[in-house]
């Protein structure tokens, strides 16, 4: 009897555990579905990257690990009968809550505050003046001195709260609600509001509430699949390879970044306008440089005016007006050409073409979104690619392994990446590890809309919090020997935070990753990359960039 009793209770436990698992999976699926539905609109469904390009739910210390790829999501939705699904959900929500409250690990800050939540006033306050270009180092210094949460007084008695722990990032994103608030780009909002004949809305960067939602809904549509033809995007990388070869100096060296910028301009042109923009041609290519310059200046002014809205505001705004007027005038011309062309012959590719032909938004909104796409991509992707090349240049073994993989996919020097089917997992790991160690941005921000407990402190609703992804990625508590470049530990689920979170996550994530995998694989396939200079130091001008030009040596590979 005892044995039967034990057996019964064991099987009951198993059943219970199974139901709980289903409920847990179901719940986690739903969370992911919400994100995925948005992301799927902007993602290709190609096998070569989907496996890594997922939104995993992964609690620390491997407590709960659920990896949810697109394909699994489809299975869950198709296979579960809706009523069963509803019933199961209702039955299990309570059980899941009880269960999860029991298995949830203790908060990371429990040793500091074992029996209470600390007040907002107790958060250590930092008051020093600092160089905004060195913000990652300054923030890391605060973390090391004061811990995972610090507050910085701002104007009008307000505070910015700086966060350095992944668990707090997750808490913030999970509390986001339908209209996440990111406090930045005010200067762009002002510029666009002063030009109501050209802009119906301020855009995705500064937009909030229903205004932001309106544009983001347009961006959920098919036009925003951001799916350039493989052929054209690979042509652009091939052009990059050729232009690198013809611009190596007599020592075989080159400053890659300006060429990577041009490539980024060309690539976003392919997806947004379905046009080649001549940025990688041997002549008449200066326009791309000027556009990149205008976007870099805009970024710097956004960063400076967000951190310090009072100093030299008028001068900075004047510079921004010049840069943005130029940016608009160039894109306007492309758009006018496209409008003329599609009147003669409909075109099915290109964000602009699809938006104009579907009539799904006003012309002003279409141009605003296209400007936001250009702006989002011109710095982030090239800077990440540059840092990936810097790291492989300093790690011969890693480079050799990546080249071996690239050769399997592209056996000949002129083989096409997209014709090959061999996976490029190691190359992808190099990209993820680069995003960990040298992300193009330091992190993200949110104005929280609920009272939250962050790092054991009570933080009131409507506080601006800064999520320091870069600092968190460089700590021993999260990664062993964090300053070493080790692709083998690539960690896509956490690295996803570099793209922000919730339903406001980066619109270009899938596009960015695909571009990065492509360019890293092709350049490594075509060149041996080396670097024997000092370790480079970085500055931040909204994006992290090398303080001085980074010169790499690239030796073309013969076959
Ligand atoms: C490595 C490359 C990139 C990184 C690290 C990155 C990072 C980010 C981050 C952190 C945000 C804020 C998201 C949030 O608030 O949750 C964001 C927003 C955005 N990104 Fe990216 N991004 C990258 C590439 C791109 C590209 C290639 C594009 C365009 C094709 C793009 C377009 C945008 C846009 C339009 C937004 C505003 C989204 C909104 O507020 O609704 N990004 N990005």
- Major beta sheet summary: 4 strands, mixed
Give the distance, in angstroms, between the N- and C-terminal Cα atoms.
75 Å
* Class from secondary-structure proportions: alpha+beta
| Number of helices, where a helix is a run of at least 4 consecutive DSSP H or I residues | 20
Shape: globular
In terms of quaternary structure, what is this?
A: single chain
Any ligands, ions or cofactors bound here, and which? protoporphyrin IX containing FE
Low-confidence stretches are 1-94, 96-101
Keywords: Coiled coil, Heme, Iron, Metal-binding, Monooxygenase, Oxidoreductase
Cofactor: heme
Binding site for heme: 506
Protein name: Cytochrome P450
Could you characterize what this model shows?
- Belongs to the cytochrome P450 family.
- Its cofactor is heme.
- With about 550 residues, the chain is α+β, with helices and mostly antiparallel strands.
- About 55% of the residues lie in helices and about 10% in strands.
- The protein contains 20 helices and 13 strands.
- It has helices at about 1-40, 45-50, 70-80, 80-105, 135-145, 165-175, 185-195, 210-220, 230-245, 255-275, 285-305, 315-345, 350-360, 365-375, 380-395, 395-410, 425-435, 470-475, 490-495, 510-525; strands at about 55-60, 65, 150-155, 160-165, 255, 445, 450-455, 455-460, 465, 525-530, 540, 545, 550-555.
- Strand 3 and strand 4 (about 160-165) form a beta hairpin.
- The longest helix is centred in the N-terminal third of the chain and has 40 residues, at about 1-40.
- It is globular.
- The relative contact order is 0.14.
- Bound molecules: protoporphyrin IX containing FE.
- Protoporphyrin IX containing FE (HEM) binds near residues 384, 440, 499 and 511.
């Amino acid at each position: 009897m005892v044995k039967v009793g034990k057996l019964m209770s064991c099987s009951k436990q198993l059943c219970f555990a199974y139901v709980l698992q289903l409920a847990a999976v179901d719940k986690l699926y739903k969370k992911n579905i919400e994100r995925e539905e948005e992301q799927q609109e902007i993602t290709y469904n190609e096998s070569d990257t989907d496996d890594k390009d997922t939104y995993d739910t992964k609690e620390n210390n491997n407590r709960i690990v659920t990896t949810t790829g697109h394909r699994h999501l489809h299975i869950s939705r198709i296979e579960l009968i809706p009523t069963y699904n509803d019933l199961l959900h209702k039955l299990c929500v309570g059980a899941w809550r009880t269960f999860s409250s029991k298995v949830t690990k203790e908060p990371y800050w429990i040793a500091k505050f074992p029996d209470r939540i600390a007040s907002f006033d107790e958060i250590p306050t930092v008051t020093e003046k600092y160089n905004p270009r060195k913000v990652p180092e300054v923030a890391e210094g605060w973390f090391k001195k004061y811990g995972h949460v610090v507050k910085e007084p701002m104007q009008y008695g307000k505070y910015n709260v700086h966060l350095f722990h992944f668990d707090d990032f997750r808490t913030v994103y999970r509390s986001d609600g339908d209209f996440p608030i990111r406090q930045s780009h005010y200067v762009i909002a002002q510029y666009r509001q002063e030009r109501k004949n050209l802009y119906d809305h301020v855009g995705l960067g500064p937009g909030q509430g229903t205004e932001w939602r309106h544009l983001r809904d347009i961006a959920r549509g098919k036009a925003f699949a951001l799916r350039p033809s493989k052929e054209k995007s690979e042509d652009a990388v091939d052009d990059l390879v050729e232009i690198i070869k013809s611009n190596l100096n007599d020592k075989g060296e080159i400053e890659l970044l300006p060429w990577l910028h041009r490539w980024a301009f060309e690539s976003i042109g392919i997806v947004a306008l379905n046009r080649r923009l001549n940025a990688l041609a041997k002549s008449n290519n200066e326009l791309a440089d000027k556009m990149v310059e205008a976007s870099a200046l805009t970024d710097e002014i956004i960063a400076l005016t967000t951190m310090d809205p009072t100093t030299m505001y008028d001068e900075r705004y004047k510079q921004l007006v010049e840069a943005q007027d130029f940016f608009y005038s160039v894109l306007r011309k492309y758009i006018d050409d496209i409008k003329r062309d599609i009147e003669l012959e409909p075109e099915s590719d290109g964000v602009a073409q699809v938006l104009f032909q579907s009539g799904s938004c006003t012309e002003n909104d279409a141009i605003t979104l296209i400007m936001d796409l250009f702006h989002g991509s011109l710095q982030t992707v090239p800077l990440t690619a540059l840092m990936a090349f810097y790291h492989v240049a300093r790690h011969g073994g890693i480079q050799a392994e990546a080249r071996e993989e690239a050769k399997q996919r592209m056996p000949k020097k002129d083989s096409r990446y997209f014709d090959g089917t061999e996976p490029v997992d190691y190359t992808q790991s190099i990209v993820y590890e680069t995003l960990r160690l040298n992300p193009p941005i330091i992190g993200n921000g949110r104005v929280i809309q609920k009272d939250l407990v962050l790092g054991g402190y009570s933080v009131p609703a409507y506080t601006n919090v800064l999520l320091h992804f870069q600092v968190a990625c460089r700590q021993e508590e999260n990664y062993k020997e964090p300053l070493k470049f080790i692709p083998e530990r690539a960690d896509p689920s956490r690295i996803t935070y570099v793209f922000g979170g919730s339903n406001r996550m980066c619109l270009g994530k899938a596009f960015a990753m695909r571009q990065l995998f492509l360019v890293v694989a092709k350049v490594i396939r075509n060149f041996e990359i080396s670097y024997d200079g000092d370790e480079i130091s970085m500055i931040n001008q909204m994006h992290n960039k090398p303080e001085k030009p980074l010169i790499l040596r690239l030796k073309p590979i013969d076959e």
